[in-house]
Amino acid sequence: MSITWNDSVPIYRQLRERVVAMILDGALNEGDPLPSVRQVAADFQINPLTVSKAYQELVDDQLVEKRRGLGMFVTDGAREALLKSERERFLREEWPALFARLQRLGLDLKTLMREASTPDDKENRS
Question: Phi/psi at 79 (nearest 5 deg)?
Fold first, then answer.
């Protein structure tokens, strides 16, 4: 497994975001174990302290829990909590700039939906 790290964001934050994405995408479900700190550090060739810091942020956010002697596990309700917070963050931080750009380009919802349709749908419209 390989990953390219972004030099402008600390690796522990990128790793945290990777786990968040896995929870949102359903690759990690409630009750699922996270890979061990040692395994992640070895797989990505990073310092185990970096992995621990990322995992600790997830614990602090109550998205994962430590089970003594067993490891880290995704908490009940983690996906729903993430969906809520990520939606709020998107609407507060990303949407205003995106909306402004859509307006500048003269794009409306109907056009966006048409462009987002599957290739089969586009062929059937032609």
Answer: -65, -45
CA distance 76 to 126: 47
Could you identify the residue written with the tokens 């945290």? Answer: 16
First-last CA distance in the chain: 42
Residue 89 CB contacts under 8 Å (≥ 6 apart), including other chains: none
* pTM (whole model) above 0.85: no
CB contact at 8 A, 59 and 72: yes
- Write the pLDDT tens digit of every residue in 49-105: 999 999 999 999 999 999 999 999 999 999 999 999 999 999 999 999 999 999 999
What is the SS3 assignment for the chain? Answer: CCCCCCCCCCHHHHHHHHHHHHHHHCCCCCCCECCCHHHHHHHHCCCHHHHHHHHHHHHHCCCEEEECCCEEEECCCHHHHHHHHHHHHHHHHHHHHHHHHHHHHCCCHHHHHHHHCCHHHHHHHC
Phi-psi category of residue 29: left, alpha or beta, with phi > 0 → left and psi -120 to 50 → alpha: beta
